[in-house]
Amino acid sequence: MQVAPAIIQFLANEFQLDPDHLNPDTSFTTDLGLTAEQLTDLLQRLQESLGVILPEDKVPAIATIGNLLELFEEDDAPF
């Protein structure tokens, strides 16, 4: 499975946006208006939907879509 397109599509569906409006610089808090609690909930739904596991120690560093996608580019990607 190509994870990046699946993540973008998941986020587009969640926010009812065209996937083309989401990019690596899109901030979950500033651009999408999420609180920390809402972001945690969103990431939980993403994990359940795509069957992936995000390392708990990396979650606090997720501020943008790019931060999220970078987790899946690492050698020890959680999928």
Identify the notable features of this structure and list them briefly.
3 helices; Non-ribosomal Peptide Synthetase Peptidyl Carrier Protein, Chain A; single chain; mainly alpha; ACP-like_sf; 79 residues
Write a concise synopsis of the structure shown.
Helices cover 44% and strands 0% of the residues. With 79 residues, the chain is mostly helical.
Can you tell me about this structure?
The protein is mainly α. The longest helix is centred in the middle third of the chain and has 15 residues, at 36-50. The chain has helices at 3-15, 36-50, 65-71. The N and C termini lie close together (9 Å). It has a single domain, classed as Non-ribosomal Peptide Synthetase Peptidyl Carrier Protein, Chain A, CATH 1.10.1200. The mean pLDDT is 91. InterPro entries: ACP-like_sf, PP-bd_ACP. Residues 7-71 form the Carrier domain. This is Acyl carrier protein.
Indicate the percent of residues in helices.
40-55%
CATH class: Mainly Alpha
| Poorly predicted residue ranges | none
Number of domains: 1
CATH architecture: Orthogonal Bundle
H/E element sequence: HHH
Quickly give the structural class. Answer: mainly alpha
The largest sheet is:
none
List the helices and strands and how they pair.
Blueprint: H1 3-15, H2 36-50, H3 65-71
Domain Carrier: 7-71
InterPro entries: ACP-like_sf, PP-bd_ACP
Protein name: Acyl carrier protein
